Amino acid sequence: MKLARLSRSLLRTATVVAFALTATACATNQADSGATDAAYRVNDPLEIPNRFVFAANEAADILVIRPAAEVYVGVVPDPVRDVISNFIDNLMSPLYIANNLLQGNVEGASNATGRFLTNTILGVGGLADVATEAGIPRAPEDFGQTLAVWGVGDGPYLVLPLLGPSNLRDTAGYAVDTVGDPFRIWAYGTDHKDVYLVRGMVGAVDRRSQILREVDDLRRNSVDFYATVRSLYQQQRRAEISNNKAPATPEFPDFTDAPKP
């Protein structure tokens, strides 16, 4: 159980950092300064315990997942890693469809359904991302986003043990997505819990492997890595909730924050 939670934590961290790198191209001291200013606008009344948990999660990444990701890159060829990423993402598609429907986003649900059917049928069970080549973009949706669409506020910022950056609303959303994950339901209902665990761990290592150097650069160039991740998480969630239709930096001078499976 702890390994499953660890895998989800590091997968979330990898996702946030990937978002940060996409948004900023690379971290700079100037960007970090903006991140520090933005941090004061974040609702973080539990900053002291949050920092403690953040440090523990960082240790888990540095000591366990990063080395595993390096081995993964060195041993598994690029085409095989692409297949693994495609397959894991396809398994998450039913959740994307359900959350789009709960948000009343018919177009998004249609898009997610089209991707799922295209990749499942033409992509040999999701091993190939035929949908993207056909012009159907990937657009993950989770229940935290659904709650936001329903008008639920963020709540206080939280760093969860082995689960990483979150807030009260997204923590509740994560719990609902976990319980409602069709793959998890199948795995537990057919006594294949080990398969569910493997999916989470492989997904975490795969995502981490895609940003090895970038995460190192972000850590090295951040004056306060905790504040950087905290702010990036807020920016990431706002962009996801608005389906990336909001300005890149609506209230912050920069990007700061690190799920899912």
From TrEMBL:
Pfam families (alphabetical): MlaA
Name of protein: Phospholipid-binding lipoprotein MlaA
Region (Disordered): 238-261
Family per record: Belongs to the MlaA family.
Record InterPro entries: MlaA
Keywords: Lipoprotein, Signal
Organism: Azospirillum picis
Parts forming coiled coils: none
UniProt keyword Calcium present: no
Leader sequence residues: 1-27
Organism classification: Bacteria, Pseudomonadati, Pseudomonadota, Alphaproteobacteria, Rhodospirillales
